[in-house]
Each structure stands twice: as C-alpha cells, then as structure tokens.
Amino acid sequence: MKITERTYNKKEVIVFRSTKAKYGGLSNMAGGYSLRVNDIIIPSAEALYQACRYPLFPSVQQEIIEQNSPMTAKMISRKYLKYTRQDWEEVKYSVMYWVLKVKLSQNFNEFSKVLKETNGKPIVELSNKDKDWAAIEVDKNTLVGKNALGRLLMQLREEYVINNKPIECVQPIDMFGFLLYGSEIDTVCNPNMEFEKDYLFDLDYA
Amino acid sequence: MQELAEKIFEIIKDYQCDYAERKFEITVEHIIDWANQFDDDAEFVLQELLHFLPETYISKEKAKQLLHTRLLEIQQFYGYASMTEMIVNTHFFNVQKSYKSQPEILSLIDEVLQTEFQINYKDFLNSPKTNYIYFDDVLATGGTVFRDLATWLEEKEDGVNENSKLIINQTKTLGISLFCYHSLGFSNMQWRLMKQFDDKIKRVLLVGKDYEVENHIKTKWIAENQKLNCVYPVEEQSKEVLEYLASLEAENDSVPAFRPSNLPKKETFFSSPENRIKLEKIFLEKGIELLNKVQTDNPDRRKRPLGDTVRSHKTFGTGTLFFTWRNISNTCPLVFWWDVPGHNWLPLFCVKNRGI
C-alpha cells in the first residue's frame, strides 16, 4: 500500500497528539482500550501493532505485550527492530487498519464516541518529526505528512462509525505469517457478543 | 496393588472427614474397589494417581497451613505491624451459599486466627475496612469469582461511589486467594472484569494462589510453556470418542478440544508421556461410557467425560486433577465422582452438595 504526503490547514482539521487531551482516545497510546486476540489480553493498540512486527519471535511479542504502558511497549519494540518481518513496510498499513478494527470492535462504545466527536472532519495526528504516520507543523496553520494513522481512522469512521455499525468480528489479514505467539491469528470478536453467548463461562451456573 | 492403595490412602484419608453426612469414609478397600472398575488397568491407574496426588490433594491440615501462610503474606503485603491490625482493616467476603466452599474456608481461617493469633475476626466485622479479600478453593471456569466480584464492584459501600471506583483509585484494595486456579478460567475472568469495569482492574486486583492448572493452550508459544497438569487428550482417539465430540451441541470451538501431541514439551506431571496418553484415554473412554448411561432427553450440557465445563465449549471437559478434602470439584473427570443409582459405578470421592 502506498500513501502520499498531504497538506492540511490546521484550522480545518481535528488534531490529536496527547492521550490526555481531547481526542486522545484516537491515539494508539491511549489507555482504556484493551484488546484480546487468540485469548491473549493486550493492553493497547500500540502493543498489538508492535507485536505484529515480530511474528517469528514470540518472546519479543510477549515482552512487548506484557508492558502496561504503551510507550514502554514501543520502546521495547525498538530494541528488536532487526527482527522485524521483512515485508513490514509493505504490510504495516494493513496491519494497522486491522489493529484499529480490533480496537473498535472490542471497545465500540468508547472508541466510536471519540470518532463521532470528530464530526466528519479530517483527522490528523500531530508529531514533531514523524511524517509517515503523522504530520508535522511547517508553519502556524499548515501540517504536512502522510498522516497514515489519521487517514486510517477516517476510513474506520466512514465504514463503521457514521452508520453506527458495531463490528461483531474481525477476520485476520490474509497474509503469510500473521502470527501471535507462534499461532495463526484467529477471527477476533466483540467481547459483548462473547459474554452474551456465554462463551467464557455460564453465569447461571456459577 | 494393596501397597499402592495404602499409599494413596495415606494421602486422601481425611476426605470429607468433617462432613457428618458423608456417604462413606475413605479406606484402602474402597480405593481398591474403585480401581478395580478399570479392570486390567486398575494397578496402572493407581500408580499414576499416586504420582500426582501428593502435589494435588489438599488435606484439611494442609489447607490450614496454606491459609496461615496466606494471612501472613497479606499482613506483610499491606504492611500492618500486627495480624490484629490487618484483621481490623480487612473484610473477608462471605457471599457464597452456606454449602459452598467459601464459608468452609472462612471457618478454617477463623480457626487459624483464633489458635495461632488469638484473634476472633468476627469481633471486627463492623469496623471500617480498607481491604477486601475473596477466599475460595478452586477457580475453574472463573464464572463464580467473576459473578461475586462483579456484584460487589457494582455496589456502593460508602453510599456514594461504586466500589469499582474505589478499587481503581486505590482508596480500597481487592484481592482473591485461591488454593488453585486454572490459567484459562483466570484469564477469562480478568478479561470480563476489565471490559465490565475498567482495564486498570487487571493491575490492581491482587491474587494469591497456591497451585495453577496450566490449561491455556490456544497459542503455541503459551502452550509450549504450560505444564498441562490436567487431563487434556490428544487427537488420536477411538471412533467412539471422536463421534462423542462431534455430537456435542456446543458452538464455541475456540477452546481446543485436544492438546498438540508434542506437548507438554517436558512431562512434569504424569510419570511419563506414554502414561499420560494411556491414563487420558482410560478416563476419557470411561467417562463417555458413564455419560452414555444417562437416560434423559435433556442432558446437562455442562457434563462432560473429563468433568464439567462451559456449555458452549466443544471440549471433553475441564480435566481438573486437583482435589481438596472438603468436596471434589465437578470439573474433575467423572470417573472420580460419578455416583448415579443404576449406573454401576463407585466414585473414589463422594460428592457433597450436588447431584447430577
């Protein structure tokens, strides 16, 4: 997937950066959006995305996933960059969109609320230097960058949030070696559906 | 055989020792009679049982020791100078029905506190509490602990804030103490608490356990590091066994019914990998045989040959091999506790408070 650079007028877009500020929930670093894939609890979208870099190194994935802080998970990931899957640059945007779909599916109320609050405006992640996932400020009113995360968030908003269409289950990406802890990643479902169907335990019997 | 039965007797002789209405006492003869139901495999079954029972049977005395140690750990963890100070500030949940495990564990705690520390915790029931501890014996699917904790977390003990908020902001603490938990059930319980309340609950929930049944095998990497210290059969089974699985009305096949044949990587629970396979087959086939005797149009969907499990799970059962003196868990293989008139099966451990 190729993404080209764009220019945004800062006054016309929703900008997010800090997880503490308004729209902070759009960030992969935001807490409170836990995920579970293949029965493994993953504390943040960032941890899941970083883990996907290292499909052949489950111990690295585990070290990343065990971090409660998404920032620490990213820092741990940096230690192992040489073990990144070889096609990462080609697949990383697809992986990120899959991660975002899982985040939405498993946190629909909270995440769709933040996406709705963007009111259909362009979403831009602001960064000091990352012109790939985010955009940087070139002058007071202008942001320039590929803004890949913002654009994937807009796509997600378009596909599921505007129509209020919760994602019941997210299929794995059809690609070689999409692995978590040595196993193929399964279809991931909305936990509410799993709870309603008593997939975890039978509460009437407990 | 006699010698094996005598050794087993020494381990399990106090089973239901404090239960006036117990159906029978454990004797060497009873153990032999139970084993003989496995025909030519009788001696083998006892040999294997003796291999893992010392680690997995909790006698009443052992339970008291474990609870004593746990109370000291709790006192130390919270940093109280004395046990009395800890007890004054700590509430023990007492929410299960009178015939369930929690009240019995609380009565042991009462005994330990009175004899070892000269404290009657019931004298302090009404003092304001900071710490809340849920004691139980075994967490299998996680449903009971989840339900009881969720009920309390939704309540407002101070009349203003939900208890969940006070736990998350660490005004109060919440802990669970178990003799044993199953890793899959524990993870399921954690996940549902996180989704129902707050992700932070995973971090603030304090957990004390003495034994872990490692049965979380969905992903290869985790599975390779699990002991599989339970009955978890391999796929190579008889036609009857495979037909039984196929016939189950259970839509959730995300929990594997079979363990990979190369796991566990190192056998630490049974006496050898071959003996594990053999015992698993014996318990599984005998369990199916027992279930086939049930004459009803609406069989209980939780009942499986290797022990009760979640209705929706398409598996042979939980396969628990952990036992306590007070009552056998229904998540253990049926061969240990099945006791139905006309089914011609003598259980090793009689069930205290449930029928079929």
From TrEMBL, chain A:
It catalyses: 5-amino-6-(5-phospho-D-ribosylamino)uracil + H2O = 5,6-diaminouracil + D-ribose 5-phosphate; 2,5-diamino-6-hydroxy-4-(5-phosphoribosylamino)-pyrimidine + H2O = 2,5,6-triamino-4-hydroxypyrimidine + D-ribose 5-phosphate. InterPro entries: NADAR (IPR012816), YbiA-like_sf (IPR037238). It holds the Pfam family NADAR. It comes from the Bacteria. Residues 16-159 form the NADAR domain. Transmembrane segments: none annotated. This is DUF1768 domain-containing protein. It comes from Hanstruepera neustonica. The lineage of its organism: Bacteria, Pseudomonadati, Bacteroidota, Flavobacteriia, Flavobacteriales.
UniProtKB/TrEMBL annotation, chain B:
Pfam families: PRTase-CE. Residues 32-350 form the PRTase-CE domain. It comes from the Bacteria. InterPro entries: PRTase-CE. This is PRTase-CE domain-containing protein. It comes from Hanstruepera neustonica. The lineage of its organism: Bacteria, Pseudomonadati, Bacteroidota, Flavobacteriia, Flavobacteriales.
